Amino acid sequence: MRTHAPACLALLGCAYQPGSFHSVMQDFSGQQASVDCLDLSVERRPDLPDHSAVVRYAFGNRCDHPVVVDLGGAAIVGRTAAGQQVQLTAYDPRHEIQVLRIDGRAVGREALAYPADTPISEICIDAASIAHGSSAQWMCLATRSQLVEVP
Amino acid sequence: MNTRISPLLAGVLVAASAHTALADDDDDDADVDAEVAVTTEVPPTWASDIDSCCVTSEHPPCVDSESDVVGYRQCTRYGAWGSNLLDPDMFVQVGMNMRHFAGSAPMAAARAATGTPERPHGGGDDALMFDERIGYPVTTGLYLAFDFELGNFANAESKNTTDRDFVLDGLFSFGARGSLGPFSLGAEMAGGVMQSSFPKQPTEQTDAVFEARGRAELWLAPWFTVGGAIGASLLDRGDWMAGLYLGVHTWAYAGDRY
Fold it and tell me: What fold is seen in the domain A16-142?
């Protein structure tokens, strides 16, 4: 959003339209869900060579006022090929992931890596937990082919 | 500082540029530490903190070409999408005001122009002013603002010695506003000091200003408005102002729409 601010100044058109899952500043690919004021899309990327699963989040604020986006506190569960269920925590060496608010009608995106000892075949994310919603909305994402490059 | 308000706060930018230039000129320990951090196993530091991207040729722009994944990327911090809410909620408005003065021209000027101490024009004079205004909400629906007005230069060549050829004022205002669909409506009281000069007058005239104003703004986008204001003096009967302006807010809809 920061890099697109000049374009927004010129076009006056950078406000997110509720429910559109569309923005000139980013795409909303992947599974989509709406939780209260937050429109959220979640997409799984190819795993990293160390088996870390990578999830890309894109979100837009449906409301005119700021709302919470808590990617670090999201409820995320991984499942291995053997069916074992594991709790996943985002890779955050700088301790930068925190609860933040996104402005009214603004959009944002983040890509987070979730380290794991063994390949994670499926990741399930509670979209409601990201927006601190009351009722759970689980979205499950299957694995994609591994990357061979450095992330 | 969020990029939405940075272009408008020119003074802040100039100061920041000067600071950057000074930082690059000296042997800053941070630069050395940065190189060490990148080449060792210590937790990575932010490239964007190390070298002010895009400012000098010595430090090429920082580009997250390798990865955009948190923990791997080097340039953009987590949560850049929420950074504007870390800035103070404030607004900047730029526009033009027309001010009408019913009859405050100095009597000496009137006498010099007409030979008699009568009020010129019968209806006073006008001033076209450039208005810069910066403000911030005190609480939801209430705000403080400071207006800086300057103008009437076009009148400098006027032969009429009772018309102001230069006007400058600074006004503080306190007001309340509310939303009505795509509009924001407000009312405020403004007070301050205005200085005016007149042709062939050796000294400027200083007047107190205290006026009531009404405002209406249309939200073009969550962070941009176009608006108009009208006001009337509470000190000088017959003095009024009217203006149009563009506004930029750091928070969507001024943070008023909860």
Answer: Immunoglobulin-like (2.60.40)
Provide the ipTM.
0.84
Task: Note down the domain range covering B190.
Answer: 85-255
Measured CA to CA, the distance from residue B220 to residue B207 in angstroms comes to 36
Percent of chain B with pLDDT over 70: 64
Chain A residue numbers with beta carbons less than 8 Å from the beta carbon of B71 are 90-94, 113
What global pTM score does this model have? 0.74
pLDDT in tens, B177-186: 998 888 999 9
The ranges assigned to domains in chain A are 16-142
**Residues of chain B found within 8 Å of residue A110, distances taken between Cβ atoms:** 70, 78-79, 81
Phi, psi of B253 (to 5 degrees): 50, 35
pLDDT for A83-107, tens place per residue?
A: 999 999 999 999 999 999 999 999 9
CA nearest B89 in A: which residue? A103
Q: In the predicted model, is pLDDT for residue B134 greater than 80?
A: yes
In the sheet with A138-142, reading across from the earlier edge strand, the strands are A85-87, A76-80, A120-126, A138-142
Residue A99 in contact with partner chain B when CB distance is under 8 A: no
- Tell me if chain B has a CB within 8 Å of the CB of A10: no
**Best residue in B50, B64, B68, B69 to probe A by mutation, most A CBs within 10 Å?**
B69
Among B167, B174, B254, B253, which residue's Cα sits nearest to residue B213? B174
Nearest chain A Cα distance for residue B83, angstroms:
8
Q: Identify the CATH number of the domain in which residue B196 sits.
A: 2.40.160.20
CB B245 within 8 A of CB B93: yes
Chain A residue with CA closest to B2: the answer is: A2
